[in-house]
Amino acid sequence: MIFHILNGDALAARLKSISGEQIIMREALIEGPLEFENLNKFLALRAKHFESCYQDDKYHSYTTPQLLKLKTIKHEDHVILWFEEDLFCQANLWFLLYYLIKNKIFNLSLVLPNTSTPYSFANMSDLDLKSALKNRTPLQHLSKLTLLWKYYSANELSQLSLLGNQLEEYPFIARAITAQQMREAVNGLNHPQRVLLAISKELKTQEFAKIFPLFCLRASIYGYGDFQVKRLWDNTISQLE
Question: Residue 204: how many CB atoms within 10 A of its CB?
Answer without folding.
Answer: 7
